Amino acid sequence: MKKRILLSFGLLSVFLFLTGCSEIKKPITSESTGFWNEYIVYPLSWVIKEGAHLLGGSYGLSLIVVTILIRLAILPLMIKQTRSSKAMQALQPEMKALREKYSSKDQKTQQKLQQETMALFSKHGVNPMAGCFPLIVQMPILIGFYHAISRTREIAQDSFLWFDLGEKDPYFILPIIAGVTTFIQQKMMMAGQQQNPQMAMMIWMMPIMIMFFAFSFPAALSLYWVVGNIFMIVQTYFIKGPDLRANATGNVGGAKK
């Protein structure tokens, strides 16, 4: 959990750095050079524009469709994340026993604890970092969306619902929805798991960070995040249905009374 928190902060820092780079003011075209422009920003810009042409000129609808397509593309990673989360929960009793067995804080004992823990993960085919993979994959896409929107005049100047895609949401509705849906998605992902202060902090920290950044960035970016969160909520409901129902009835981690 500590690694996930540090990774989240690190990726968000990279996001802030890249969104402020000098190229943000240069229009993106088929003539743009560099790996970032040629393989991430321009393809996203092109797909959004082509989607808008097929959807009656609505770049907002195109963004929604492209977001769903991206979520479908990374769906295997998301399913792996959810299954890894459930597997980690199943190993909690054995991990607790190891911590009690190697409770001494000296370096040799702690090294032994790490070795035994990794052996336990290997035995059951669990990757403790699997939950971070979707975040790592999504961050370049999120930054690419920001550049594609900001550097493509047709997208940035288009309006959808009550907001302009290239401007901040004037009523801050989307940032709030982004924060709320992130919170719901986090709660659902951690349903059935034993709660600890670090997990509780993560549940609240991510939505607050997402909402804070969404206040400053183009509304189209918030739209991407909201649609992606709704997709994740539906996906998690179908994958973790039993855990969610047990959590709702208060029977998490034990048998029904």
Automatic annotation (TrEMBL):
Domain Membrane insertase YidC/Oxa/ALB C-terminal: 59-240
InterPro entries linked to this entry: YidC/ALB3/OXA1/COX18, YidC/Oxa/ALB_C, YidC/YidC1/YidC2_Firmicutes, YidC_ALB_C
Keywords of the record: Cell membrane, Chaperone, Lipoprotein, Membrane, Palmitate, Protein transport, Signal, Transmembrane, Transmembrane helix, Transport
Main location: membrane
Transmembrane intervals: 59-79, 128-149, 169-186, 223-239
A biological process from GO: protein insertion into membrane
Subcellular location field: Cell membrane
Molecular-function GO terms, alphabetical: membrane insertase activity
Membrane topology: Multi-pass membrane protein
GO CC list: plasma membrane
Main function: Required for the insertion and/or proper folding and/or complex formation of integral membrane proteins into the membrane. Involved in integration of membrane proteins that insert both dependently and independently of the Sec translocase complex, as well as at least some lipoproteins.
Family: Belongs to the OXA1/ALB3/YidC family. Type 2 subfamily.
HAMAP family: YidC_type2 (MF_01811)
Name of protein: Membrane protein insertase YidC
Organism for this UniProt entry: Neobacillus bataviensis LMG 21833
